Amino acid sequence: MSAGADAIAAPATAQRKQSGRLLTALLLAPSALWFFVLLILPLAVVLIYSVGVRAPAGGYQAAFTFDNYLNLPARWTAFKNTLTLAPLGTLICLLAGYPLAYFLAVKSSARWRVLLLILVIVPFWTSFLIRTYAWIFILGGRGIPALLDSIGIPDVRLINTPFAVMCGIVYAYLPLMVFPIYVSLEKLDKRLLEASEDLGAGPFATFRQITLPLSAPGIITGCMLVFILLMGEYLIPQMLGGGKVFFIGNALVDLFLQSLNWPYGSAVAMALVAIMLVTVSLYLRATAATGGRRDASLI
Amino acid sequence: MDRKDFIKQLRRYQKGSISRRHFLGVTGLGTATAVLAASMPHLMTSRRAYAQDLGDQVNLTTWPDYHNPQNFEAFTEATGVKINVTVFGSNEEMFAKLKAGGTGWDVLVPTNYTIETYVGEDMFEPLDTAQLPNYNPEFYTDPRFTEPGTISGKTYAVHKNWGTTGYVINSAKVTDKPTSWKEFWDLTNTKYQGRTMVHDYQLTTIGNALKYFGYSFNSNDEKELAEAEKLLIDSKPNLFAINSDYKPSLINGDAYMSVCWTGDGKQLQKTDPAFQYILGKEGGEIWADFYAVPKGAPHRSAAYALIDFLLEPKANALEVEFHGYPVADKRVIDLLPKEIINDPILYPAAELLAPLEFGAAATLTNPARAEIMARFKSA
Question: Smallest Cβ distance to A257: which of B96, B243, B371?
Answer without folding.
Answer: B96
